[in-house]
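Key result, reporting period 2: structure in, sequence out.
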């Protein structure tokens, strides 16, 4: 990704739906290193939102389903990690990312 005005800035994205993912996607487009943190069940936006799915044949979405166009549009340019924040080890990983 090309360097932007936020190059070198890390943003942890624990948001779901609407403006949270859109805002962090915009930060990523400006060069921030955005890390999407999702629960083991995945962000709810990964599921079929109003019937708009991206059909590509390989079913690479959560649970082997096709990808949600909503999720893909609002979360591109981000890295991602799954953390079960009910577990102490996952909290340690989150704290390390915050550092």
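The corresponding designed sequence is given below.
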């Amino acid at each position: 990704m090309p360097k932007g005005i936020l190059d070198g800035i890390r943003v942890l994205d624990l948001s779901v739906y609407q403006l949270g993912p859109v805002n962090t996607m915009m930060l990523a487009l400006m060069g921030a290193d955005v890390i999407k943190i999702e629960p083991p069940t995945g962000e709810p936006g990964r599921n079929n939102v109003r019937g708009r799915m991206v059909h590509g044949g390989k079913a690479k979405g959560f649970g082997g389903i096709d990808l949600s166009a909503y999720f893909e549009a609002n979360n591109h340019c981000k890295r991602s990690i799954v953390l079960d924040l009910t577990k102490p080890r996952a909290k340690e990983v989150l704290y390390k990312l915050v550092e």
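The chain has a mean pLDDT of 83. The first strand starts at residue 10 and ends at 13. This case is discussed further under Risks and Mitigation.
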